[in-house]
């Protein structure tokens, strides 16, 4: 008499399952891809195609752009989505190529620290950027800094 394989499904704990997490990871990648495409192409168009092109990008250009909350939030959204999108892609590569559980855990941890660290540092740069530093060369500052002093 041969043993029949069990047709009973293994019990899955309630709540968030691994399969559900992978489904949402897949959905996240499909949603953020087109959003990032719009954010990045608009960013490139504004920075490179309007005005004097690449020669206009200097401290004053960035200072003038980040004086507007719209561009601060635009750049923050671009930063966060790009890092989460790229981090999720790297997570999938780690899952595919790191065959030892301990190595996978180390690489996932390093990736998480890098993604969170860059998001935090980038956010600080965007929102604490001083367009009119006190000791800066006046020729490098945007024109609205004269009104501040």
TrEMBL record:
Metal-binding as UniProt keyword: yes
Localization terms from the record: Membrane
Protein name in UniProt: Succinate dehydrogenase hydrophobic membrane anchor subunit
Keyword entries, A-Z: Heme, Iron, Membrane, Metal-binding, Transmembrane, Transmembrane helix
InterPro entries xref list: SQR/QFR_C/D, SuccDH_FuR_B_TM-su
Keyword match Acetylation: no
Ranges that cross the membrane: 26-46, 76-94, 106-129
């Amino acid at each position: 008499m041969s043993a029949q394989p069990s047709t009973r499904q293994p019990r899955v704990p309630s709540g968030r399952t691994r399969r559900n997490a992978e489904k949402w990871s897949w959905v996240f990648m499909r949603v953020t891809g087109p959003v990032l495409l719009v954010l990045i192409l608009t960013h490139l168009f504004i920075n490179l195609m309007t005005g004097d092109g690449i020669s206009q990008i200097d401290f004053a250009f960035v200072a003038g752009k980040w004086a507007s909350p719209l561009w601060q939030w635009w750049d923050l959204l671009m930063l966060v989505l790009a890092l989460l999108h790229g981090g999720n892609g790297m997570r999938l590569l780690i899952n595919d190529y790191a065959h030892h559980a301990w190595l996978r855990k180390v690489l996932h941890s390093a990736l998480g620290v890098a993604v969170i660290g860059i998001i935090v540092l980038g956010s600080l740069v965007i929102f604490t950027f001083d367009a009119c530093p006190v000791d800066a060369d006046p020729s490098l500052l945007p024109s609205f800094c004269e009104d501040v002093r």
